[in-house]
Amino acid sequence: NGAIHIENSVDACWRQLDAGNHFLYEQPKAASSWKRKEVQELHEDPRVHRVQGPMCRLYMQALDTDGGYVRKETGWLTSSKEFAEAFECVC
Fold first, then answer.
1. Which of 4, 21, 53, 72 has minimal CB crowding within 10 Å?
2. Could you read off the pLDDT of 44-88 as tens digits, one per residue?
3. Is 1 helix (H, G, I), strand (E, B) or coil?
């Protein structure tokens, strides 16, 4: 069940924050999960950054006949300012 997976993922993010560690939560930019209460509450924490960018930033390439980079917009929540700065971009 997708809802249970999201709840477990967000719970793991909170545990990482509470332990003083970093986390990374990733979903497609247009995913409806960004509107879920638990995801929004995590995003509102001042230790958390939300960034977005295309997967080509991670050098993801398509296996189709064009073979080009994938421009799928993806969103991340992270407690790492360095990660947030490195991955918010355009290709």
1. 4
2. 999 999 998 766 666 566 766 666 666 677 888 999 999 888 877
3. coil
What is the identity of the amino acid at 73?
A: E
Tell whether pTM > 0.85. Answer: no
Beta strand 24-28 with 73-78: parallel, antiparallel or unpaired? Answer: antiparallel
Q: In what order do the strands lie in the sheet with 49-54?
A: 24-28, 73-78, 49-54
Instruction: Give rounded-to-5 percent helix, strand, coil for the chain.
Output: 45, 20, 35
> Which of helix, strand or coil describes residue 50?
strand
